[in-house]
Amino acid sequence: MSTVLFVKANNRSQEESVTVKLYSTFLANYKAANPSDEVIELDLYNEQLPYMSAAMINGIFKVAQGMETTAEEQQLADIANRHIDQFIAADKVVFAFPLWNMTVPAVLHTYIDYLNQAGKSFKYTAQGVVGLLEGKQVMLLNARGGDYSQAHMQAYEMAVNYVARNMQQFGITDVTTIVIEGHNQYPDQSAAIVERGLESAVAASKQF
Ligand SMILES: Cc1cc2nc3c(=O)[nH]c(=O)nc-3n(C[C@H](O)[C@H](O)[C@H](O)COP(=O)(O)O)c2cc1C
C-alpha cells in the first residue's frame, strides 16, 4: 500500500479548467486501479499559504537548530514544516497545475518554497546540491493554452520546467509529465487535443 499525495493548484471549475479535468480524470482512475492506497488530496487554494518571509525563514532555521522562536516565527515554521513533512512522507506525489503567465500559480510557488529546506529535501556539498528524497515517484499534470513544443518557445515555459527542476533538486528521478497544450492556439483542434490528453492521463494512472 502506498501513500499518495495529490496537490491541486487550480480552483477553477472542472467545466472551465483543463488542468482540473486532468486532475479529476487521473485521480478517479488511480483510485480505481489502487483501491487500497491511502490518497490525500491537498487543494492549495483551501490552505493558508503565507509567502516566504523574514519571520518564516528565521522560524524554519531556528526550529531546525532547536533555538527559541517568537510566536510568529513558530507559527510560520509550523505551516511550512507540516507541508514538507507531508510531502516527505508520501511515496508518490501528483501535481496538477496550469501554465499561467508563463509560470505556475502563486500558491504552487509558495508551496514549493516550503519544500525547499536544506537538510530535509536537499543538502549543500562541495560538489553542489544533492537531493535527499530519492525513491519518490512524481507525476506532473499540466495544461497550457499555447503550443510550447517548438524549441523557440521552450524558454517561455517556466511551469513544468520549474516544478521538474525542483524535483530534480530533491533527488527525485522518477518524474512523469503529461501536458495538454495548444488547445487555445489551435481552436479548431481544441476538443481533440484535450480528449487525447485525458486518454493519456487514464493510461498513465494505471502505470503510476
Ligand atoms: C491567468 C491566466 C494566465 C494564462 N497564461 C498563459 C500563458 O502564459 N501561456 C499560455 O499558453 N496559456 C496561458 N493561459 C491559458 C491556460 O494555460 C489554459 O487555459 C490551460 O488550459 C490551463 O489553464 P486551465 O487549467 O485553467 O484551463 C492562461 C490562462 C489564465 C486564466
TrEMBL record:
For whether the record's keyword set contains Oxidoreductase, the answer is yes
* Key word NAD present: yes
Q: Describe how the cofactor binds.
A: Binds 1 FMN per subunit.
Q: Which cofactor does this sequence's record say it needs?
A: FMN
Enzyme's top EC category: oxidoreductase
Q: Any idea where the Flavodoxin-like fold domain is?
A: 3-200
Which Pfam family is one of those matched by this entry? Flavodoxin_2
Q: Which reaction does it catalyse?
A: 2 a quinone + NADH + H(+) = 2 a 1,4-benzosemiquinone + NAD(+); N,N-dimethyl-1,4-phenylenediamine + anthranilate + 2 NAD(+) = 2-(4-dimethylaminophenyl)diazenylbenzoate + 2 NADH + 2 H(+)
Q: Which GO terms describe its molecular function?
A: electron transfer activity; FMN binding; oxidoreductase activity, acting on NAD(P)H as acceptor; oxidoreductase activity, acting on NAD(P)H, quinone or similar compound as acceptor
Q: Supply the EC number(s).
A: 1.6.5.-, 1.7.1.17
UniProt cross-references to InterPro entries, sorted A to Z = Flavodoxin_fold, Flavoprotein-like_sf, FMN-dep_NADH:Q_OxRdtase_AzoR1, NADH:quinone_OxRdtase_FMN_depd
UniProtKB keywords: Flavoprotein, FMN, NAD, Oxidoreductase
Subunit structure comment from the entry: Homodimer.
Outline what the protein does.
Also exhibits azoreductase activity. Catalyzes the reductive cleavage of the azo bond in aromatic azo compounds to the corresponding amines. Quinone reductase that provides resistance to thiol-specific stress caused by electrophilic quinones.
What PANTHER family does this protein map onto? FMN-DEPENDENT NADH-AZOREDUCTASE 1, FMN-DEPENDENT NADH:QUINONE OXIDOREDUCTASE
The family classification in the record reads: Belongs to the azoreductase type 1 family.
Q: What is this protein called?
A: FMN dependent NADH:quinone oxidoreductase
